[in-house]
What we know:
Elements: H1 8-16, H2 20-42, H3 45-64, H4 74-95, H5 107-110, H6 113-135, H7 140-151, H8 156-163, H9 167-187
Helix pairs in contact: 1-2, 2-3, 2-4, 3-4, 7-9, 8-9
Amino acid sequence: MQNCKIQDAVLVSNYINGDEYALEQLIHRHKQRIYRFIYSKVMDRDTAEDIFQDTFIKVIKTLKNNKYNEEGKFLPWVMRIAHNLVIDSFRKSNRMPKFNNTDKFDIFSVLSDDSLNAENQIITEQIYADIKELVQLLPQNQKEVLKMRIFKDMSFKEISEITGVSINTALGRMRYALINLRKLVAENKIILNIE
C-alpha cells in the first residue's frame, strides 16, 4: 500500500502503537494546510511557526497519553487545537503590550489599537463561525427558536405566533437550545471570550 493512501486514522493508530514514522507522515501530509491557516490569522511568520510547533506538541501529548478520541477526524481536531492556540496567542499579546526600547516613554507605543482591533475582529469572526456551526447540530425546534431570537432579534411573542406554539414552549425551547449549545461549546473546547 502506498503511503499517501494510508488513512489518517490508521496513521494515528500506528503512532499510538509506537510507530514514530506515522506521526511524521501525518505532519508532512497536513503541515501546509495547518500552517497556512495559522499564518492567515496571525500574519507573522515567527508567531505562526511557534503556534505550529505548539500545536503538534499538544497533538503528541494527547496521542501519547491515549486521550485522542476523534476517530477519523484528525485534521479538524488538529485545526481546532491550532485555532485555540491562535486565540491564546492573541490574548497573551493583548495582556502584555510591547514597549519600544527607548529612554522616552510613549503611551502610543503601548496603545496599538489598530492591531488589537484587527486581532479581536479575527477572533470574534472565528467565534461566530464556530457557534453557527454548532447551532446546526441542535434539534430543529431549538435551532429555529434560537435563530429567531438571537439572529433575527424577535420577541418570544413573535416566535410563538410564527411557530404556532405557546410563549412558554418557545421559552423552554430557547432554554434547552442554550443548555445544549453550552454542552457543545464545552465538548468542542471552543473559547468564547476575547479577554
